[in-house]
Each structure stands twice: as C-alpha cells, then as structure tokens.
Amino acid sequence: MDGRKLTLLSFILIVTITQACAQKKSYIVYLGHHPHGSDATIEDHERAKTSHYNLLASYLGSDEQARDAIFYSYTNHINGFAASMEEKEAKELAKHPDVLSVFPNKIYKLHTTRSWSFMDMMNNMPTHRGSNKADLGRNVIIATLDTGVWPESKSFSEEGMGPIPSKWRGSCEDKTKNKVHCNRKLIGAKYFYKGILAISPNENVTDSARDDLGHGTHTLSTAAGSFVPSANFFGYANGTAHGGAPDAHVAAYKVCWAAGCSNADILAAFDTALHDNVDILSLSLGSGPSFSGGTDFLNDAIALGSLHAVSRGATVVCSAGNQGPGDMSINNAAPWIVTVAASTIDRDYPSFLKLGDHHIIKASSQESESLPQNKLYPFISGSDAAAPGLVNVTQAKLCNTSSLDPEKVKGKIVVCMRDLEIARVQKGMTVKDAGGAGMVLVNNEYWGDLIIADPHVLPATMITYNDSFTLFSYLKDTKNPKGNISPKDTRIGDQQAPAMAEFSSRGPSYVTPQVLKPDVTAPGVNILAAFTELVSPTGLDDDKRRTPYAFLSGTSMSCPHVSGVAGLLKAAHPDWSAAAIKSAIMTTARTKDNKHMPMRDLATGNEATPFAYGNGHVRPNRASDPGLVYDTKFEDYLKFLCTLGFNSTYLRGFTHDKHFDCPSKPMMLENLNYPSISVGTLNTTIVVTRTLKNVGPAGTYHVRVDAPPRVEVVVKPKVLVFPKVGEEKEYSITMTSRIKDKSQEGYKFGRLMWTDGKHHVRSAIVVNVASS
To answer: Where is the Inhibitor I9 domain (predicted)?
Structure first.
C-alpha cells in the first residue's frame, strides 16, 4: 500500500473516530432513591455501582463500554449515574421501567459585615464568643456547593468552636501540595469535576477544594464565618465580620470552576453532602429561568438534589438569580427550596463627582486610590477618545479593552457607559492602561438608579441614569469640561433601605405561578466577606492587589444570609422540619424599609411588589419565635408533583413508602400548604386552604386581611385557638374577582396576617385576576 493510500485511510479513520466521539454527550440517568438508606455498607455501594454498569451495558453492548462511559455512580441517597453516550442511546435508556428520567449534563452559572446588623440580628449581639447570645448555630453543619474555600481565612478559625458533631461523616480531600486543612470550624472540603470535564475537557481543574475564584469563600463566610475583628477592604467598612451562624461548623463542596458548574457534579455533591449529614445546603448558582413546564423540576440537578435533601430533613437555600428586573426571570423555583432575592443595606460608600460648574453628583465607589483634591481634571467621553482605526466607536463608548486612544485619554477622567457584556472593573482597567487619571461609570436606562461600589483599579465612581443627564449636559455645553472625584467614604444609616436590586430575578414562576417566588429577600449589594488570596478582588489578571476580605454583589450574596438564618433556627429548634424553618423565615419578614416606607424597586423607582421580594425582607430575630408555621409535609410535595403530571410509580422513587399513590382527585396547586398565597388565574371564585401549626405557647390568633384590589377575600374561621404546642388548625380563603372589564385584568397584591398580639404571621397574597 503506497503512502498516499495510507494517509487517506488514516484521515478517514481519524474523521470517523472524531465524528463518533462528537456524537456522544454526557447525561444524568436518575433512578430515584437507594433502598439501603444511611447505614449502607461498602458492599451496598458496590452492588449499586454494579447495577448501574449492568443497566447501561444492556444498551451499549458490553460491561467494559459501560464502565468507560460512567463517570459518576450516585450510591448514597440518590440512585443514578452520569455517563457519556449518544443521544439515541439516552432516549432508549429513558424508556426503561426503572429509569425515572434522563437529562443532559449542562453548565450552571454562579449568581455572583454590616448586613447582619442591618437585619437586626440578635440585638446587642456580642462581637466575640463567650456569652449566651454568642452561641449561634452550635452543632449545626452548613455547607455550600460553590467554588470551594480559602481555608487560611480567619473566618474559618476554630478558636472557640465546640467539638465536631458526632453525626458528621465527611472529611477533607486534597491531593495537592497546598492541602486544604480542616479543623473544628471547617470540617469538610471536597471537590467534583468529572461532570465539567465531560462538557469542557480542557477545563483547568485541580484535586483540591481550594478556592481560586473567591466566590465560595465569600458565600461560606457570609453564612457561618467566625468572628473576625477589624475586617475591612482597603479601609472600607472596618469592623467585626461574622457570618449568620458563627458557631456553626462548615463544609465546602467545590462544584464550580472557571467555566461554571456542571449539574452532574452538583448532583454528586448533593449525594455526598447528604451522606455526610449536612443540615443546611446553600447554593448560590442556577441554570437560569425555566419555561419548559413542571417536568423541569426533576430534570434539574438542584431541584432533584434538594428534594432528596428535604426528604432527609435538610434545608436547601438557593439564590433567585441575577436576570432581573424582567418578569418570570426567577431561578430555583421548586417549592421545597428557599429562594432568595437580593436587596440593599443601609451602609453606603459615597463618592462625589464634582463638576467644573460647581454641580456635585452623589456617586458610589470602593476605589483603593484617590485623585488629589487641589485641582480639576479634564473630562472626555469614551466615544470621543476612540482609538485610531477603531471600526465600532460604540466599543470606545463602553470603554472596551484596547478601544481608547492614549493620546486623547492621558491625564483625563474618562466617561464610560455601563453595559451587559463588559465587566465594570474591566472598563476601569482599560482607562488605566490608556493613561487615564480616572473614570466615571454611567448607568443607562436599563440599569436605572442602582449603583454598585466596585473595587476599581484607579480613581473611579459610578452614577445613576437620572444623574447622567446632568453630566452629559455639562459635557455638551462646556468648551473645556473639568471635574474631580472625591476620596472614598463609608456611611451607615443614611441610605433608605432595603430596596430591591434591579438585577435580582423576579417572579412569577413560569412553571408554577401558583407558588409565589422568590420566597424572601436579603442583603445582596456590596457585601463584605472573606475572599481567596489567589486572585484580585476584581478578578482581572493585571490587578495585583490581594485582600482577605472583599465586596461582592448578587443574589449569590443574599442566599447565604438566609442559609445562616436557617442554621440559627436549626440550632434553636432541632426538631423543626425544613418546611417549618422556611415558614418561620417567610412569615416574619418585613415589607417596609428603615424609614417605615414600602420597600422600593431600584429598577423602576416605584414601590416593589412580591414578585421582587416574595414575602419580604428577612428578620432573624422574629424568625426564631414565629408563633405559627406552615409545616408542609414531604407527601404534600409529592401530591403537588402528581398534579404536574408525574405518576405514582415515578414518585415512589423519592420515598421509602412503596404504597404512595397520587390522589384520585388531583390537588389544586394553590392548595400546597405554602407560607404565601398565589392564585394562577382567578376568573370568578376560588377557595384556597392552609394549615397552621402552633410552635409557640398556647394562644388565640385573629386574622387581618389587606385584600388585593378588585378581589373580595373572605377567611373562615376568623379566629384560630391553639390550646397547646404542636396543634394544627385549618382555614380557608375564598377569593372572588370583582373586575368589570379586561382593562382591569392582571396581577393584584395583598396581604394576610394572623396575630395573637405578640406574634404576627404574615402571608403575601398574589392573584392573577382575569375577566370571566
């Protein structure tokens, strides 16, 4: 055979192999729960793995092929595996009677000290351990599924910590030189990357849970970091940092890498964390809003893993997402999850933009260096400073990388427009690289009046959309516009808060509008917490600064606030279910700000609605003594899923009760015993029921109703008497539409409250009113 033929055959062989490999994708095959439970032996786990190999081999053709294809076997509580296979093989496998679902392995995204005081957490709370009030979260284990942990942070010091709970089964796994060492505070650290490699084979992964992005360290310390005096960010917000449950033990499950978080890795971490006996699971990540219907709940690693967690008594708290302010942008909308939106706190980082005509514009920044205040600097807009030969001047307007002309920019303050694609701090680096003296970052109409204090690499500040008119008018009307940016500052109590962050994802849930989401809101803007020292606070390669504490914003930050509160409640009430903890957090939340005004939505400037904040802003003190709770049973969730179309055989896979059957008459989705009340569509009249459980002293509760506009609401009975703790009482809410024409249709908002004079059990009411 001559060389040309050999080369041709080799080429054909390579193409054939490449095409075959390209056809394979990674999938999660879900089989329900394991019958062996918590006391499984090594033999039980091996038997489960073998069953997975045998099942897949029956479709791939051999045991060897199955073993090569499977990269995760879930053998603790979750029964299933993750494997690479062709789409047609996945579709055939989904038809097997033992298979509950088969869904693609895909990438999820992260939803990237004063906050606790602002939430009125523990009045007169000490700044150290050693008093009764400092016993916050003891014996509780809080875990994050995130980017790992920076173990050297003082927030994870074991000083003053009690012994590791005897129930703990976890460990610290690390095969690198700089190992993650655990202690009585940080009791677990594990990593998962097989799923991300199945999607992105070139992803840079390590055999370590060490955090090289900072996000996981930040969220874990927010939830349960130890007391750390004099924590600050280059002098900003100096004070004692601590998490919500500083006495709780923590564990980090690293599932997120630079490319994102694979749902196969997420499910593996859930399975491991449940085996390790974690009490609270905190996930500041998500797959994005769902528009595919109720079946998505069980084709989603977070919804699936959290359902298993709740069945085991663990509470799962998730971020609502950063796709706001549009409607139906909510993430993690399953009713068994605590879904958290993001709002502001009353700590402000003002920086003032001074114009040459003596106008002063209030702005915000966390710049680490300031301009001299004894002179004014020339202004130039990015669009007027475009680099020579730049085809798209819009890139200069946005201050994109290499878009500015150094000759035009040198020594000047550059005005850059904010956008969705280019990181705010990257714009500052572009100005700095071009020789600029400073930067003004301007919100457009989309971003409105939410300004974020960023850790800029040069003197810089951000102004609101409304204030941009003053600046642009000055630039336009002035021959040689000049100005300056004032030095950094920190102020507490001046700012009206909480207000809803414009980026926070909004309801209603497209999948189940009968369940109000988000559930609550918590601080998520300019939050100071521990950080990795492997990267800069901006994450930019050219930024050489390192800091043990940093500011981040997002529902990623609000989520661990609520995880910390859940930890406090679990420590105070170890017998409470996940639903009871969730109810206590929701029904004690507030909807007014620190000026006693209705919470505002920074996206519109108007009053916020429950689609932004759910039941309100979290109040930890009140949550510890809610009086009554809506204690949703696990079987209620299964009946809820029955109504969404799942059959009894499928749902038995979630429970040890092999006799579970879906009700002959489907449960009305509005009747899920949820702490808030949401009606998908009201044409004429609907009757909704709820059951309250007394977790406080004996008492008599009276109902108060603030009915949604054009909706008549009747509650029966109007009085509930609870002679003893643990007693349950049912009530009904009859809602009747009173609209007269289509122009009055749409979502209407109200509120219901049960009170005994001391306790106030609040529920948001959301009704989509339509004409009959």
So the answer is: 26-111
